Please model this.
Amino acid sequence: MALSKSRIDKAGRSLANPGELTIESMELEEDFDEYRISHLEPLSLTTLELQNWLHGYGSSYYIAQRVKRKPQIVRKLRRLSVRLTQLQDIGGCRIIVENNENVDQLIPFIRDNVTKIGGFSLRRVTDYREKGRDQTGYRSAHLLLERDGRSLELQIRSRIQHYWAESIERTSVIYGRHLKEQEGDPAVIDYFRQLSDVFYEIESSRNPNVQSKVALDRKREQAQRIIYESDKNRIFDSSVNEDIVLTLANMQGGDNDLTNWIMVFNWNTGDFVTWDVVGREAESAKAKYTQYESQFSSEAGFEVVMIGSSDIATIRQTHSHYFGIEKFDTILESLDQSIVGFKTRMDIDVGARQILALLVRKKYWGRKGATIDTLKNHFAKGVNTFESSLSTLRERELVTMSDFQAPVSLNIKKKSEIESYL
Model:
């Protein structure tokens, strides 16, 4: 039976203001779980739709989706004093592109495509890129979509904007404060605001002067001291097994088929507890999500999140704050380190990454390879950009082939670089 709007809002109030545990409060929590997971199917359809459109887009991009975590929803209900049915980002999709010019191109591109589909609408565009949102400096373009009676939020970010967002996300958990919600020492929040402003200047082709770089680095050092003193677990000393994505690639669906995952990350130790495949059927997805949330609570330092993507390596980029935490020196990078970082994040397209992953799985290194026909018509038949993607890999010398008739194999000299892409 479909839940009424009043019942959904009552479930939200019960969740945000918990009292004594009763039969009704447990039923209301079940209603919340049902309402939240009802966003999964329209969200997955939308992500697949966007993905199909982006095949003709012509530039590098990453795309992934997520169903909002329960602790985030509870904090938002309390912070904004809103009803559960007023939240518009329970189902969210994220597209990361090269630069602001690409963001400008994508907004009308998506608007035009949405108008061609019945029951699917673009209700609003909110652009936070020029001035940044609130005191934190968050920058992105938000498109509010509606499908099958559910609001869905599409974020479109340039790689610099995404690099900033992932940095503040990672720092927030280590620091133990929700910085994007303006929680924490003003000096730490101010550092990220200044960093966002400097990134905006760089993205606008205006090089920051020496004085602003020095001032920013002083703020970074001050913020770093504050965060260092607050981190009781020293989780910045932990590292993530980089082979996990290569292993999971063998579990994902077929080419261009969306796979939803439940990830459990332990912020006490800085590593993944588990990744579990989730179907798109609402009832089984709800059961798994609630099971993991009950088992691994946020109060105990765990993060349970449902993420969907057609390419497992994409999650390494769209949610990079879970990966590669090595030591404290890299938690708050210097400006120059940051610039180097985001310039090397996204220089091959989705199709090229899919071809690399296929060749790695087949262990086609050095002299062992596959013909172009075999790659195109069998192993990588779902890669719509096959020719251009293969040319990109050849230009970067990630694959070796004497000509377009010769077998394709991975360049053993570029092994570490290839693995970094995957």
Remarks:
- The chain is about 45% helix and 15% strand.
- Residues 234-241, 325-331, 339-346 have pLDDT under 50 and may be disordered.
- The longest strand covers residues 150-158.
- The domain at 350-421 is CATH 1.10.10 (Arc Repressor Mutant, subunit A).
